[in-house]
């Protein structure tokens, strides 16, 4: 089974546009779970332009499924996740001013740093995942960091799929086979959508979890969160 974790960053973006509490992020998180999503993902950024650190704390008692917090493990991020203790922390090597995530870890160059951060998270009984490009030597490097899982960075797949280039799945499938051999759990995310998710899932052996935000919220503008979430669950089932 592949779990659907809904990234609610965009709900916070909309709320922040007017400075009030509409839409209510906590209510949306409750409803998303009620509609069947098996997790909630947030990716707070240092400028707090969407999810704020306070939201991350407020969400803790609301998330009854799996709480996944993503981000660059700068000091303020680590302090926060060690206090909140979500089920999973996904490490992403974002630049401070990145518009969105745009690269996976170089797991070779950052090996010692990742080992240190991952050990600290695991000492606190938090499952770890690290965001990686579909490049075999980066998967091999990931296995040496001690991480529980990898998150395959799927932007390039999504871009090529939209151009009908289905061959673009190959590096993802190859890396997934390797990750399975190395006993790494496999998550995936970035630009996954109702259009491309079924094909992606069918080609990734043992895909444990996808985190989806941007497309899912855009799709929900037309069809509503409940219908869209059940659409994903059907395709992931
Ligand atoms: C790691 C990843 O792909 C997502 O977390 C994405 O970066 C969401 O962040 P934004 O909502 O800031 O684009
Ligand atoms: N980890 C990926 C994520 O949380 C959502 O990415 P996107 O669907 O907003 O591109």
UniProtKB/TrEMBL annotation:
Keywords: Cytoplasm, Pyridoxine biosynthesis, Transferase. The record marks 151 as: Transition state stabilizer. It is found in: Cytoplasm. Its main location: cytoplasm. 1-deoxy-D-xylulose 5-phosphate binds at residues 45, 50, 100. Its EC number is 2.6.99.2. Pathway: Cofactor biosynthesis; pyridoxine 5'-phosphate biosynthesis; pyridoxine 5'-phosphate from D-erythrose 4-phosphate: step 5/5. Pfam families: PdxJ (PF03740). 3-amino-2-oxopropyl phosphate binds at residues 7, 18, 191, 213-214. GO terms for molecular function: pyridoxine 5'-phosphate synthase activity. The active site is at residues 43, 70, 190. CDD domains: PNPsynthase. It catalyses: 3-amino-2-oxopropyl phosphate + 1-deoxy-D-xylulose 5-phosphate = pyridoxine 5'-phosphate + phosphate + 2 H2O + H(+). It is an enzyme of class 2 (transferase). Homooctamer; tetramer of dimers. HAMAP family: PdxJ. Belongs to the PNP synthase family. Catalyzes the complicated ring closure reaction between the two acyclic compounds 1-deoxy-D-xylulose-5-phosphate (DXP) and 3-amino-2-oxopropyl phosphate (1-amino-acetone-3-phosphate or AAP) to form pyridoxine 5'-phosphate (PNP) and inorganic phosphate. This is Pyridoxine 5'-phosphate synthase. It comes from Aequorivita echinoideorum.
């Amino acid at each position: 089974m592949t779990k659907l974790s809904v990234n609610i960053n965009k709900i916070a973006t909309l709320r922040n546009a007017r400075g009030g509490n509409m839409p209510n992020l906590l209510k949306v998180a409750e409803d998303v779970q009620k509609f069947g999503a098996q997790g909630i993902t947030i990716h707070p950024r240092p400028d707090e332009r969407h999810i704020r650190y306070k939201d991350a704390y407020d969400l803790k008692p609301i998330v009854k499924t799996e709480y996944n917090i993503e981000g660059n493990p700068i000091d303020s991020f680590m302090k926060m996740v060690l206090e909140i203790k979500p089920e999973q922390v996904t490490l992403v090597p974002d630049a401070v001013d990145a518009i969105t995530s745009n690269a996976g870890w170089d797991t070779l160059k950052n090996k010692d740093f990742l080992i240190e951060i991952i050990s600290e998270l695991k000492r606190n009984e938090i499952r770890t995942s690290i965001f990686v490009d579909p490049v075999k030597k980066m998967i091999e490097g990931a296995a040496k960091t001690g991480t529980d899982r990898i998150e395959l960075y799927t932007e390039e797949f999504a871009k090529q799929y939209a151009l009908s280039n289905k061959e673009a799945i190959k590096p993802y499938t190859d890396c997934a086979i390797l990750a399975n051999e190395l006993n790494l759990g496999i998550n995936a995310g970035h630009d996954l959508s109702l259009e491309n998710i079924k094909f992606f899932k069918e080609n990734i052996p043992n895909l444990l979890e996808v985190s989806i935000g941007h497309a899912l919220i855009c799709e929900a503008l037309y069809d509503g969160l409940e219908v869209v979430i059940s659409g994903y669950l059907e395709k992931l089932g």
